[in-house]
Design goal:
The protein is of the alpha+beta class. It is built from two helices and three strands. It has a three-stranded mixed beta sheet with strand order 2-1-3, covered by helices on one side.
Length: 88
Amino acid sequence: MKQKNEAVVIRAILEQLGRLRITKPVIIRYRWYEPNNRRDLDNISSFGRKVIQDALVQTKVLRYITGFQDAFFVDKERPRIEVEIEEV
C-alpha cells in the first residue's frame, strides 16, 4: 500500500516541483482536507506524512526536515492535501 501511494506522490512532486532541490533544512506544513470529519486525525496525518516525506527525500527535493505542522479541514467537494515547504 505504501509503495502504491508513494508512486502517486512522486508523480505529483515531479509534476509540481520538477527537479527542484532544497539543500537547507525545512519545516513542512500540511493542510488536510477531508470529505467529512469521521476519521481520526492521527490516522489521516501519520501515514500521509510518512509517504509524502519519504517521496520528497527519494526524489531528492529535500534533505533535512526539521519539523512539521498539521491543520485539518472538511471540504466535501474537493478533499485534498496541501503541502507548504519553508526553508529555515
